[in-house]
Amino acid sequence: MFICVLPDIFLYRKVILRTNRNWLKKLYWVVSVLFYLGIICLFAALPHAHSESLLQVFIWFNWLLLTIYLPKLLFSIFLGIDKAFTYLFHFRIHPFSYLGGVFACLLFIGFIYGALIGRFDVELKRVTVTCDSLPPAFDGLKIVQISDLHVGSQSPKSTFWAKEVQQINAEHPDLVVMTGDMIDNYASELNPNVVNTLSHLQAKSGKFSILGNHDYGDYSHWPTAEAKKANLDSLKQREKRMGFRLLTDEHLFITKQSDTLVIAGVQNWSKPPFHCYGNLSKAVKGTERFPFVLLLSHDPNHWMAQVVNYPNIRLMLAGHTHGMQLGINHFGIHWSPAQWMFKQWDGLYHYQNKDLYVNRGLGYIGVPLRLGMPPEITVLTLRKK
């Protein structure tokens, strides 16, 4: 609310008041007050409403709010800088006002592009991971990683998932892994159409998934603890119907010829304010004699906090960050606000003969927008050094 009121007041005083048009002054504040009321109503209602329709209203209201108020805020900042320079240096021209106008317009256009085009513009990334402890029979293993689908944010009738299933199957992967946040809050987001579509994902050696922070329903109000648990149980059943083997603090073995590959998965492990459920020691207990463990863990912060202390976990796959759905990855610049929260937030990272790959996710949360950080499907090929 604070980020909305301040630029409204500032722009009213510096721009609207100078027009001397009473109808414009009234319209300005009528629109602003409607936004304030919308913010209060939606944030009050959302935690108590198990409704996908309300979720759609919420995320699109968020988009409209940001599309209007972030350019307003940016323009206000430039106007303030312009006023300061005019006062200190007696400028007769106002370059910062013009710059602010240009940048505000670009941001406004960018948010429209990110909602209409960017959120559907999936990037297929091919990554090769080499490891000296990889069992020889698994040299060339192809893994397709998807993450953070947040199915509820998409329209229930969206054809998006069918297109991505087709794209993944065209890769003929050995494994398909989904590294958490299948839903926003409610298992019902996985309606029969989505379940049927995602069940057509094909992998020669299996499909595996883990739980992310959103999968537990922690961001909704539940009448009882039993209702919350029933929601999580329903999610697990729907993932099973899609053909995913959900790994909850456990591991399993894939054998090929005389070699064995260990795949382990933990429940969501996160630092506050996110809830932490995962138990890594339990997940990998009994795997000590195997030289290569592939770990699925939703939050990349888990890697440096615990995972690197396990010598045979040589590759971890994570998601969670979304690349903050906003950033730059061109002209040698790789930047996003996500790096203020995560040391490892997008792409491949190395540490002491261990690797981490962070997938930006296929879906979005909060705002139906992808700008500079497109949705991602990762095709990882494992190679033995």
Structure characterization notes:
- The chain has helices at residues 2-14, 22-45, 52-89, 95-116, 160-169, 192-198, 225-241, 280-284, 301-305, and strands spanning 123-131, 142-146, 175-179, 207-210, 244-246, 250-256, 259-265, 293-296, 313-318, 328-330, 333-335, 347-351, 354-358, 376-384.
- With 385 residues, it is α/β, with parallel strands linked by helices.
- It folds into two domains: 2-116, no CATH class; 123-384, Metallo-dependent phosphatases (Purple Acid Phosphatase, chain A, domain 2, 4-Layer Sandwich), CATH 3.60.21.
- The protein has a six-stranded mixed β-sheet. A six-stranded mixed β-sheet has the order 6-7-8-9-13-12. Strands 10-11 form a two-stranded antiparallel ribbon.
- Strand 4, helix 7 (225-241) and strand 5 form a beta-alpha-beta unit.
- Helix 1 (2-14) packs across helix 3 (52-89).
- The mean pLDDT is 91.
